[in-house]
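Support case: adenosine-5'-diphosphate complex. Customer-provided input:
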Amino acid sequence: MTPLLQITGASKHFGGLFAVEDVTLTVHTGEIHCLIGPNGAGKSTLFKVIVGTYPPSAGRIVFRGTDITEAKPFARVIRGMSIKLQAPSVFKTLPVRQNLHIALQDHVARAAIRAEEDRLLGILGLAAEAERPAGLLSHGQQQWLEIGMALALCPVLLLLDEPTAGLSPEETFRTGELIKRLNAGGTTMLVVEHDMAFVRQIATSVTVLHLGKIFAHGSIDEITADPRVAEIYLGTPHAA
Ligand code: ADP
Ligand code: MG
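Agent response - structure generated as follows:
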């Protein structure tokens, strides 16, 4: 089966800093593929190379059978890729519904937008918050709204960068259940995460990045049993 996303030999250098170095990574349709690694490992940079924020210094990216290495970010979105970045980006003064409306308006027919807003509000568990300014939501609810804004683009591949950052254990668990629900509905996921309990909750496969390079790949059980992985996490503020 052709992989949904095939990254081959991808690098991203900032001057002399090799933030991502010779990464080869395959994401198959249907996966919840978690990308883990200590702070500074290159996870967010790799995401930005995948979505086209940064052109890679080397390597090749093939998405749904098409080479997108040189494609502009919007062209990748049109082909079915969507990202929720690490930094929050909801419009805090606007109502929750309006945030979704903005994400939907460019590619959903005007007459269908309201129904699509309602569908997303239901999936996200935010129906009761629809008319409240997004800035008044809890931190967890704002994260879900952001996932909803990425979902509004109807992605086949959704990239989430640290969806549980700053969330309570309860909100983290609910985020995991949301991700699994979206995956069951047909969205393949590539998720950056530090929280190993959360990775265990959602992951169908795990790739470890360290110093910009692929360090290990396997099931969550294989990764947590690997003493080399435990070693690179020791002494980091996000040790699992
Ligand atoms: P992670 O998301 O795994 O914590 P990042 O991808 O954010 O790691 O960062 C990897 C390395 O690249 C770090 O050393 C970081 O300081 C560096 N880096 C990230 N973005 C830039 C940039 N725009 N310019 C220069 N260096 C960067
Ligand atoms: Mg990061």
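The CA atoms of residues 121 and 221 lie 34 Å apart.

Case will auto-close in a few days if no follow-up is received.
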